[in-house]
Amino acid sequence: MxxxxxxxxxxxxxxxxxxxxxxxxAYDYTLARHIDAAGVDVILVxxxxxxxxxxxxxxxxxxxxxxxxxxxxxxxxxxxxxxxxDLPFGSYQGNSKLALHSAIRVMKETGAxxxxxxxxxxxxQAAERILEAGIPVxxxxxxxPQSIYRFGTYKVRAREAEExxxxxxxxxxxxxxxxxxxxxxxxxxxxxEEVTGFLKIPTIGIGAGAACDGQVLVTHDALGLTTDFSxxxxxxxxxxxxxxxxxxxxxxxxVRARRFPSQKESY
Length: 267
Known about the structure:
The chain is α/β, with parallel strands linked by helices and 267 residues long. The chain is 42% helix and 13% strand. The chain contains eleven helices and eight strands. The chain has an eight-stranded parallel beta barrel with strand order 1-2-3-4-5-6-7-8, surrounded by six helices. The mean pLDDT is 96.
């Protein structure tokens, strides 16, 4: 049977019908294939690859070339989900021409379906330029990891009235600019519910409560592959770090004892 692709229009329809949107990250062919087959609606090739794939402390070091490589691997595996790619730090900020060039490279070289950028007012010129080229753009407000050194902390954003008002304005601005969706990261649940209510486009929450139109997690966190990162918003659906460690220990034991390979596993 032909698989019906999830599109930006699909997400709009899901918001209208109040069907929650399930979104996860992926960075390689094998994991993306399993995630897609399991029924996830959106796969984000996140700049979180900088952390979980490359071991960096922040998302800032990852480059556009790195993101294109990871996205290309993911797209080759996916048959159903909408694939969105983060534009990494330094590939779009403050220069709309550079932003367009970066987005075009992502779309042409990976086959992805959309890009994501962080920020409100500061990112509007980049978003407008990319959208003019016909490339769908997802926004990202609240805790924006590419600005972590400006924040100086990973604490919840928009608790204070001034910052909450700015988030409301930025969300509406991104919608009016033409973004098809917005990620809300680490903001109060009540604020996320309020803004989700007045926006016409879908919202995706991560640490933003249950009232968003959808939810996203970093897959390595959800599967328990990471063990040193445990914020409140992460729910671990498996403990694969333990499973992998035990499997490798078993393999090492079999090799040491010459139980592997067996006669059946030899030629």
